[in-house]
Amino acid sequence: DIVMTQSPDSLAVSLGERATINCKSSQSVLYSSNNKNYLAWYQQKPGQPPKLLIYWASTRESGVPDRFSGSGSGTDFTLTISSLQAEDVAVYYCQQYYSTPIFTFGPGTKVDIK
Amino acid sequence: EVQLVQSGAEVKKPGESLKISCKGSGYSFTSYWIGWVRQMPGKGLEWMGIIYPGDSDTRYSPSFQGQVTISADKSISTAYLQWSSLKASDTAMYYCARPMVRGVITGGFDYWGQGTLVTVSS
Questions:
Q1: Which of B45, B111, B112 to mutate to test the interface with A (most CBs of A within 10 A)?
Q2: Calpha distance A90→B4 (Å, rounded)
């Protein structure tokens, strides 16, 4: 089974500053036949279901602000919030969908305002 | 507008059975898989399993195989998650979610239900 890890567990960033979250998979989620990374990022605010931010590791979901970006390939991925806003306080999860039907989530990273 | 609307919160005793639901609308219900995700209090997201309402093909996470049953009734565009004998450790929020790619188990989950809180306590 693919195991997903995230770092840090939590971080506090000043408003307007950059937040960076890392996600690592125990094996590559890059599908060689189409050169796509089978990885998504979600944002979950308290009392709400998760919201899809990024899929295929770097494609932003419709309506997601462009301050959110995803990068990486193979086993190492990053979600970057370029200029943190108050409404970005949330827990962020990565998820692999390479080894379907098992969709493994990372443990989450909590983002707060410093 | 695509919507997944889940049934309301439940309070049950250990040993009781339960079936919660997720009704899809605004899209072709039989053409997309629907999955279930558990979130225990204060914890992260856990993948439970997924069903294709078109033919009821169902796959489970090994962690949940034999512990729950996933089903669907395509005539009323509703997916279900059920337990035959609840335990206190089943206390959690349960979400249904739809993969973004039609007909295939892949891609991020772009639509989520609002969640159903299940509390199991004696």
A1: B45
A2: 22
CA distance B44 to chain A (A): 6
Per-residue pLDDT of chain B (122 residues; tens, 9 = 90+): 999 999 999 999 999 999 999 999 999 999 999 999 999 999 999 999 999 999 999 999 999 999 999 999 999 999 999 999 999 999 999 999 999 988 888 889 999 999 999 999 99
Closest Cβ–Cβ partner in B59, B60, B114 for A49: B114
Q: Are strands B116-120 and B10-12 parallel, antiparallel or unpaired?
A: parallel
Cα separation, A102 vs B6, in Å, equals 22
Alpha-carbon span B69 to B29, nearest angstrom: 19
Q: Is the CB of residue A65 less than 8 Å from the CB of residue A108?
A: no
Q: Look at chain A and count its residues.
A: 114
